[in-house]
Amino acid sequence: MRSAWMAQELLTTFTDDLSEVSLRPSEVAGRYQVFVNEQLIFDRKREGHFPEAKELKQIVRDIICPERSLGHSDKK
Q: Per-residue pLDDT tens for 38-51?
């Protein structure tokens, strides 16, 4: 459920910048990894937590369109 919601958040935020978001089940329980163009940008095990929407949007933005403002999601 969390991954589907996050995919929707990314597609809504980056409507003109992302062509797709795909979800792939893992053979390892609890795995939550996010890739952009084959590059691992977030790993729940490495980071020690699930990303908040704001955090993941900032990471994705910094890779695909760093000049773009995220409005309220840029505020710390």
A: 999 999 999 999 99
